[in-house]
Amino acid sequence: MAKPARLSPPTWLTAGLRPQPTPVPWPAVVRASVALAAPLAVGFATDRPAYGALVSMGALSGVIGDTADAYRMRILNIAVPQLFGALGVTRGTLVFGEGWVAVAVLTLVALVSGMISSIGAVASVSGLLLLLNAVVGAGLPMPQPWWKAPVLLGLGGVVVLVLTLLGWPLRGGQPERAAVAGTYRAVAELFEAAGTDTYDVRRQAVTASLNQSYDLVLARRARQHGRAPTLVRLLSQLNALIPLLEAAPAAHFAARRFHRPLPPQIPAAVRALAATVETDRTGEPAPELPEAHRPSEKAVDEALRHAADIVNGTESRPYNVDDRLGRPAALRVRVHRATRGALLSGASWRYGLRLALCIGLAQALVSLIPVPRSYWVALTVTFVLKPDFGSVFSRAVLRALGTAGGLLLAAPVLAAVPRGWWDVPVTMVLAALIPAFSAKGYAFQTAAITPVILLLSDLLNHQSFHLVLPRLYDSLIGCAIALIAGYLLWPESWHTRVADRLADAVADTAGYLALAFAPGADPAVRHRARRKLYRDMSSVRSEFQRALTEPPPAGDLAAAWWPLAIAVERIVDATTAARIRVDHGAPPPEPAEVAAVERQLRDMADGLRSSDVLVEVRVDLGGDEDGVLSALRQEVRAARAIASP
C-alpha cells in the first residue's frame, strides 16, 4: 500500500523562509548599534526623549539604505534618500489629523513615490523614504513647529553618514580593489570548472561579479584619466579580463570534448593576479604557463599573459583603456533621462497607480474604521509593494510572518523593560540585529526592524505593551490590501513576462552571432555587444528568480522556462568560443552556416513571443560536425527541443 504524500509548504514560501548563507557584516552591525542608540542617549540626557527617537528613526532609514560598497556611492545612497525623506515627513506633518485631506495627499505622494522608484536603486530608496516618512508624519504627533521633524530625521541620516565615512581616509579605494580582485578569483574558479557540470554556475557568478565591479569603478570614475589614476588602473585591470572571459568558453568546450581539464597552473595564475590587484602591487614576475597547442589553449595563454602585463604594470601604456560599458553621462543628462523615463514609461505609471490605489485604500479604511495608530497599515503596504524587492505575493506573506516574529521579540521587551535609560542598551542590541538579519532574507529583516520601530514609536505615543497586538492586526490588514488591490487586481502581477524577456535575449543572441562572424567587424564592438548581452541575461535571470517565488501559475511557468534561459547562455558561450577559435587559427565557418544558425535563433525568438506553451520540436540543423560551429549547433538544437512552439 502506497504511503500517503506528506503535506509540505510550497517552494515559493519556503525559499523566502530559508536564511541566506551570508556572513555577518560586523562593521555595519557596529554602525547600526551606535547610530540608533547614541541619539536616544542624548535625548534622555537633555530630557528630550521624543527628539532622540526621531533622530534614531532617521538613522534607521540611513542604516537600511546603506547598501553600497564604494564610499562615493554610499554618500548618494544615504544622503539623497534623506532629502526625500525630509520632504515626505514635512508633507505628512502638515496634514496630521486632517482626515480625508490626509488621504488625498498621501495618495498623491504614493503616486509620485511609485513613479520615481522605477528609475534606479537610489531613486527606489528615495521613493520609499518619501512615502514612508509622509505616512509617519501623517500618523504620529510630531514636534512643532513643522520644520523640527524633518531636521531631526535628517540629523539621524547625517549620523549614519558620518559613521560610514570614518574609514574613508584609511580605506579609500579599497572596496573597488576588493571587488576587482574578487572578479579575478571568480574567473579562476570558472577556469577550474571548465569541462564540468558546474561551469554554468561559475559563469553566472563571474557575470554578477563583473557587473558589480564595473558599476563600482565606472560610477565613481573621474571624467579625465589624469584626475583618477587609481580608478583608471582598476578599469584597465577589469578590461584585461574581457579576453580571458572570451577564452573561457573555448576552453570549456575543448575540455568537454577532449575530456581533459585545464592545467592547474591557469587558475593558479589568475588567483595570483587577484592577490596583486587587491594589494595594488606592481612589478610581479610573469606567470609560468604550460605550452599551448590547440586554438583554445592559445587563446587562454594569450589572454592570461595580457592580463598579467596589465595587472603587473608592465604594459607600455597601462592607462590607455577603453570604457567597454561606456562612460557615465553628465549628471544633468542623467537627470533629464531619468525624469523623462519616469514620466513617459507605462511601467512607471502602472506601478505608481498601483501603489497610490493601495495607499489610498489603506488611509480611507483607517479613516472610516477606528484603528489604533493606523499609520502602520500604510507602512505595511509601502514595504510590501516595492517593485524591486521581489514578488508582492510572497513578500506579503513573509512580512506577516516576519512581523509576527518581530512582535514576539518585542512583546517581552516592551512589557519588562521600563521606559527611560534602559531603552538605550536595548536599542543598541536590537539595532545590531538589523544589518545582521537583513542579509538573511526579507522575513528576517522584517523581524529585526519591527521591534526597533515599536520601541522608537513608543517614545512618541507612550502606549508601551499595548502596541503589540494592534501592530499585528495593522500588518495583516496592510498585507491583505497589498494582496488584493496590489496583486490580484493586476494581471501583470500573476502573468509572468519571462517569455518576452527570453525572446528579446534570443533575438539579441542572433544579432551577436551575426556580428561575431561579420567580415571586418570591429572587435571592440563585439566585446561591447557580448558584455551587454551577458548583463541583460543576468537581469533576465534575476527576473526568473523573482518569478519562481510567485505562486502558481506564474511560478510554475517560470520553472518551465528556466532550462531555456540556461540554454540561451550556453548558446552565447558557444558563439564566443567559435569566434575565439577562429581568431587563433581554426578555419572560419561558411557564411551559409552562420546564416542558418542565426535563422534558427530568430525563429525561436518569434515562437517565444507567440506561445506560452512549451512544445518539443526536433529541427534539422546540418553542417560540418568538425567545424567551429559544431558546438553552437548542438546548443541551438537543445534549445529548440525545449522551446519551439
Percent helix? over 70%
β content, as a range? under 5%
Sketch the topology as an H/E string, one letter per element: HHHHHHHHHHHHHHHHHHHHHHHHHHH
Number of strands: 0
Poorly predicted runs of 5 or more residues: 221-227, 316-326
Mean of residue pLDDT values: 81
Compute the number of helices: 27
Computed structural class = mainly alpha
What Rg do the Cα atoms give?
A: 27 Å
Biggest β-sheet strands, sense, barrel: none
- How far the N terminus sits from the C terminus, by CA atoms, comes to 41 Å
Principal-axes geometry comes out as: globular
Brief summary:
It is built from 27 helices and no strands. It has 645 residues and is mainly α.
Verbal overview:
The chain is an all-alpha fold and 645 residues long. Helices cover 73% and strands 0% of the residues. It has 27 helices and no strands. Helix 6 runs antiparallel to helix 17 (375-384). The longest helix has 30 residues, at 554-583. The protein starts with 10 loop residues before the first helix and ends with a helix. 47% of the residues are buried. The model is unreliable at 221-227 and 316-326 (pLDDT under 50).
Keywords:
mainly alpha; 645 residues
What order do the helices and strands come in, and which of them pair?
Layout: H1 11-17, H2 26-45, H3 49-65, H4 71-94, H5 100-117, H6 121-139, H7 148-165, H8 168-171, H9 174-192, H10 199-219, H11 229-239, H12 241-258, H13 265-279, H14 295-311, H15 331-344, H16 346-368, H17 375-384, H18 392-416, H19 423-438, H20 442-461, H21 468-488, H22 491-494, H23 498-516, H24 523-547, H25 554-583, H26 591-610, H27 630-643
Helix pairs in contact: 1-18, 2-3, 2-7, 2-19, 3-4, 3-7, 3-20, 4-6, 4-7, 5-6, 5-16, 6-17, 9-10, 9-11, 9-12, 9-13, 10-11, 12-14, 12-25, 13-14, 16-17, 16-21, 17-21, 18-20, 18-21, 19-20, 23-24, 23-25, 23-26, 24-25, 25-27, 26-27
